[in-house]
Amino acid sequence: MSKSKPPRSPTEADRRQEPRPDGTRDRPTLEVSRRDFLTFATSFAVLGQVAGCHSGGEVVVEPGVGLTGEGNIVLPELLWYGNTSAELHTPDDWQVEVREMHGAKRPGMTPEQMAAAINDPIGTRPIRELAKGKKKAVILFDDMTRPTRVDQIAPLVVEELLAGGIAEDAISFVCALGTHGALTQNELRKKVGVEILERFRVYNHNCYEHCVEVGTTSRGTRLLINREVMSADLKIGIGCVTAHANTGFSGGGKIVLPGVAHMGSIAHYHIAVPATDRQSTGLGRYDHNVMRFDIEEAARMAGLDFKVDVVVNERGVATAMYAGDFLQCHQQAVVAAKEIYALDRTGAKADLVVVNAFAKPNEMLIAYMLGIQTLYPHKGGTIVLVANAPEGQVVHYLLGRFGEDYGGLRYPTAVVFDEWKLVVQAPHFDKTFGDWFANPDAITWTRDWEGTLEVVRPLHGAGSKVVVIPNATMTYYPG
C-alpha cells in the first residue's frame, strides 16, 4: 500500500482557515455569520415529481403522528431508543396546523421487497456477479445521525457476497462517519445488528489517519480515502436519502465523500467547493449543486461499486429502496425524495412553529433552519425545537466547539437570530447541547412540554397560529 503524499500547497482560502501556532484562527465576525446563515437557512429549491421504484407494500408500521381527536399532537421520538411517541396538549384557543411530509404514511418495505431490490439492481450487475473473482469486500454504512436500518439491509448484502464466492473473513464493515465521532459498540449493535457485529469486523472511520491518496477532483479536492476501504476490490455502500442542508439531498456518493475521506479532503469539499457557487447549494437544491458534483466525481474515483439507498416514512422506516450503480440509484431516489419529504406551505403567517428533530435529534440545527423557513420573511414569532437526544449532539470535528471560543474549521456554523425567539425542549440537556451556535446563551431551554408552555403561552395567547412539523430534520419546502 502506497503512502499518502504530503499536503498540497494551501490556497488563500485554506490559509484563512488554518490555525496559528497557538491554535487560534481568523474567523468571520458574528454579523457576517448571521447574514450568511440567514441566506443559507432561507434558501428554497425548485423540485420535481416522484418516480416508480421498489417500494413498500402491505406492512403495518408504528402508530402515525399528527393531531388527535382530543386536540393533542402526537410526535415521533427516540428513533434509536424504541421509536416511541410523545403526546403534546396544545391550548384550545390556538389555531394548530400539523404540517406533515407528503410521504408520511407510506408503508414500510418487507424483507422480501428489500431482497428483490438488491437482487434486481439498477445500472449494474447483481452483487453475487460483481463478487466473482474478488478477494475482499468492504461495506460502508452511515452513522446514528441517519435513520437507515442497516441491520435489515446488511444481511441481504452479505448473503449475496458469500454467494459470489467471497470468504466471510474477507468481508469488513466501515462506518462512514465523515467528521463525526466514533460509534460505541452499543450504538453499532443498534445500527448494524448483533449478528453482523459478532460475525464481522466493524470499524469506525478515522478522518485524521490511515487514509490513502486517490487523486484530485476537477474542483480541487485532493482525495484521501480510508485505507481499509481502498484495500478492498469490491466496495458497497448502505445509506439513505433525505433532504440535506448542503447537498440538497443526502445519500449516493456521500458515503465516500465526506463519509470515509480525510479531514483535509472534507474541509476542501465543505469550504472551498461551495464557495464557487453558493446559490447552487442548500436544503433541497440538487440539480446544479456543486457539492454534489464533487461527491459524485470522488465516489467514482474511489471505486464505489454498488450502493443501496432507502427513503423513509414519518417513522424512519424504509418505504422505497434503490440498489445498484450509485449515481443512477441516487438520481432515481432523489426524484422520489423530492415528493416524499416535501412540505406544503399554506401561506398563512405563523406565530409559533414547533419543529421536531425526530430523525436527527443529535443534529438539531437542521430543524432550526426549517423553523426559520416556516416563519420567514415575517419578523417576530417563536421557534420551539424539540430535540429528545439521550446521546446529546453528535461530536463533529468540522463544525463542533472544542474550547471556550474555538472549534472545528467551520465553527461556528450558525447563530440564534434576534428576530425569532428560540426555545429548545431537550429532556437530556447538557451544557454543550447548543454549541453548534455562536451564541448558545440566546437559547431558552426547557425539559418538557409543560415547561415549554410556561415559556411560550404568555407570548402566544388566544388565536395564535401554530404550525407543528413532526419531522423537521429530513423535510423541506419546495418552491
* CATH architecture annotation name of the largest domain: 3-Layer(aba) Sandwich
- Estimate nothing, just give the exact number of structural domains: 2
Mind telling me the CATH superfamily name of the largest domain? LarA, N-terminal domain
Global mean pLDDT: 89
Shape: globular
CATH topology of the largest domain: Rossmann fold
- Please tell me how large the radius of gyration is: 22 Å
* Largest sheet features: 7 strands, mixed
pLDDT < 50 runs, ≥5 residues: 1-32, 44-53, 57-62
Helical content band = 25-40%
Total of helices:
13
Strand order of the largest sheet: 1-15-14-11-6-7-8
> Structural class, judged by helices and strands?
alpha/beta
Q: What is the CATH class name of the largest domain?
A: Alpha Beta
What is the CA–CA distance across the termini?
49 Å
Give me the count of strands. 20
User: Which strand-content bin applies to the residues?
Assistant: 15-25%
Supply the key terms.
alpha/beta, globular, 479 residues, six-stranded parallel β-sheet, 2 domains, 2-enoyl-CoA Hydratase, Chain A, domain 1, 19% strand, Rossmann fold, 13 helices, single chain, seven-stranded mixed β-sheet, disordered N terminus
